[in-house]
Each structure stands twice: as C-alpha cells, then as structure tokens.
Amino acid sequence: MRVFVTGHDGYIGAVLVGFLKERGHQVTGLDTFYFEECALSDVPRPDRVIRKDIRSVTAADFDGADGVVHLAGLSNDPMGDINPACTYDINADATVILGRAAKAAGVPKFVFASSCSIYGAASPDDVLDEQAEFNPVTPYGESKVRSEAALSQLADAGFSPVYLRNATAYGASPKLRADLMVNSLVGYAYLSGEVLIKSDGTPWRPLVHVEDICRAVLAALEAPAGTVHDTAFNIGRSSENYQVRDVAEHVARIVPDSRIVYEPGGGPDTRCYRVDFSRAETGLPGFEPVWTVPAGIEELLKSYRQSGLRMADFEGSRFIRLKTLKDHLAQAALNKDLYWNSPRPQAH
Ligand SMILES: NC(=O)c1ccc[n+]([C@@H]2O[C@H](COP(=O)([O-])OP(=O)(O)OC[C@H]3O[C@@H](n4cnc5c(N)ncnc54)[C@H](O)[C@@H]3O)[C@@H](O)[C@H]2O)c1
C-alpha cells in the first residue's frame, strides 16, 4: 500500500514509519516538525517527506495514496490548553480539511488517531466500551469528539474513516515523550531513584504500548473496508487498565534502587476511566497486541540506559512536548497560532 502518515515525526509516527516499511508499504510522511530536534535516537525516514502544516493540505498532496493515517495534532491535554482556539483549529478543523482532501483525492481509507480521553471523567466502577457517553474534560478531548463526528459525516461507499481511540501510550520511540505517565515514572526512577506520583495514585488509566498502537493502525489499514467502515475501536487490552499506584509499584520493583514518593498535595485527578477493549480484540482483523506494562517498563529502562539519558534532558524541553512548544513561542519561532514565523532550515 501507499500510506500517507501525518505527524510521522512524532512519538507514535517514528515507530509507525518503521512498522509500515517493514511490512513493505510505501510511506509518505507529512509534518510541520515542531519536534524536529527532539530525537533520542535515529528516526526512520519515510520514502517521501512533505514539510507542511496540516491546515494547508490539499487533495494534490495525497498523490495516489491508498490510505491515510492521521496522527498530527497537539497531542495532550496541557498542550491543548495553551490556546484552546488553536487546539480546535489544528486538532478538529484541520482533521476535516484532511478528510475532505483525502476523499476528494479518492483515498479509500482514513485512519484517525483518536483517544480514550474522549470518555474523560467517569466512574471507576464502569468499564467503558465504544458506546459509552463522551465526557471530555479538556479542549484536547473535545477536539477528538468533534473530529470523529465530522469524519463520520464524510463516510460513504468510497471513503471509510476508522477511529482508533488509543489508550495512553508508553514505550520506547526514537521521538521519546517524557510527558507520558509510564515513560515519565520510569525515567525519574532511573535518574533519581524516586518513583514520583503526582496524584493520590488512585486514578484508573488504560495503557497501551506504542508498538501495539502501530499494530492496530496496520490492522485498520489492511482490513477490508466493510469490516472497519465508520467504526470506532478502543485500542489497548482489557487486562491493561491500571491505577497509577499499581504502575508505580511495578516501576519500583523493576528499576533498581528506586522507591515510591507521593508529591505533596496530589489530588484524585479528574481524568479517570477504565476501558473495555473487546471490540478491537475480537473485531479488528489481524490486531494482536502483545505488550504489558511490566514488559514495557523493562524495555524503557534498557532504552534509557542505552541512550545515556541524563536528567537535564529528561526534565528539559527536548522530550516534553509542552515545553518544546513554549520554547518555540518564547523565541518567536512560532506565532500564537502555532505557525512558523519563517521557513525552517531543513534538517533532512
Ligand atoms: N501518545 C499517546 O498517548 C496518545 C494517546 C491517544 C491518542 N494519541 C494521538 O496520536 C497522535 C500522535 O500522538 P504522538 O504521541 O505521536 O504525539 P507527538 O506530539 O509526539 O507527535 C505529533 C506530531 O504531529 C505534528 N504536528 C502537530 N501539529 C501539526 C500541524 N499543525 N501540522 C503538521 N504537523 C503537526 C508534530 O510536529 C509531531 O511530529 C495525536 O493525534 C494524539 O492525539 C496519542
């Protein structure tokens, strides 16, 4: 397949490009490269790269693609809060621009990286499936709700959007994100000996390895359109819902000489949800997730050791998406709408 990946230079994209190429697919990547200088290790290159903001994409960009994987966007709640109007602009309105352009270009499949955070605040007693009520608590979560609804309006016999509602990701990637819960807990434990819990440890969170997200993307791309057409899938494993304190215990057990520490004043956190993944486990042909959180903690520890990770990098702006964007804004490299103020020199 000729696969068009937006946001290919991000945390998930950098793993996905390798996955797709390994399967023999031809990959075009499109990204505005907000995090170009933020690599932990060598980033796999797509066959073709388009350096562009998704808000400016046209049908001509898709050039014979058989499928689109739409990852680009402001990828977590704190980034979405920098400028909520801009979050809707990039995450929701530009998703519609992309969907329309892909449809006009005759691309049959559009795989959208949605998120379990559309379920938002929920009772820990409920295990939420795809029919659960949406209750997003941030512009980020709301932008995913709006995107799915708008893409669904475009669905027809020739255009099949698929919504992958990913759990919170973890795991090694050449474009490490240290702002993801497991990645962060392991990094601090490794670098400081403390497994730092910032809440009271009780919130539930479904967790999924970045490679298992890539397996879901592959399955959605390769599935017959009829089996996934206009369908949402929670992406993760039903056995991989964790309370933060349980993850912390695994980290303290696996990372040598580390111990759990609670940050003073940590509350219960409004984002709390447990998710049922049986639809993807049984109804997304070819999707077989393999990772568990303890195995991912061991993998992360190995990757941090191998890369010689240091605290200054881990806490700095290189691996924390919000800090990188704030740096670009402070240096006036980006304007308030998160467009580059001047063309960027191409690193590759
Ligand atoms: N990582 C997770 O835990 C997780 C969970 C659920 C859903 N998702 C979704 O998956 C997608 C990818 O997440 P990620 O963790 O790889 O994020 P990331 O921040 O590492 O990567 C996002 C990429 O999109 C690019 N981008 C952002 N705005 C753009 C724009 N206007 N034009 C062109 N490119 C732009 C960035 O430069 C970056 O390379 C996001 O849509 C995110 O909401 C991620």
Task: Describe the protein's architecture and organization.
The structure is a single chain. The protein is α/β, with parallel strands linked by helices and 348 residues long. The protein has one domain: NAD(P)-binding Rossmann-like Domain (Rossmann fold, 3-Layer(aba) Sandwich), CATH 3.40.50. 38% of the residues lie in helices and 18% in strands. It contains twelve helices and 14 strands. It has helices at residues 11-22, 77-82, 84-104, 139-154, 181-192, 210-222, 225-228, 244-254, 278-283, 293-307, 311-315, 321-330; strands at 2-6, 26-31, 48-51, 67-70, 109-115, 127-128, 160-166, 168-170, 194-197, 204-209, 231-235, 241-243, 259-262, 274-275. The model has no long low-confidence stretch (mean pLDDT 93). Bound molecules: nicotinamide-adenine-dinucleotide.
Total of DSSP H or I helical runs spanning 4+ residues = 12
The percent range for helix content is 25-40%
CATH topology: Rossmann fold
Structural class: alpha/beta
Q: Could you name the CATH class?
A: Alpha Beta
The end-to-end span amounts to: 24 Å
Oligomer, anyone? single chain
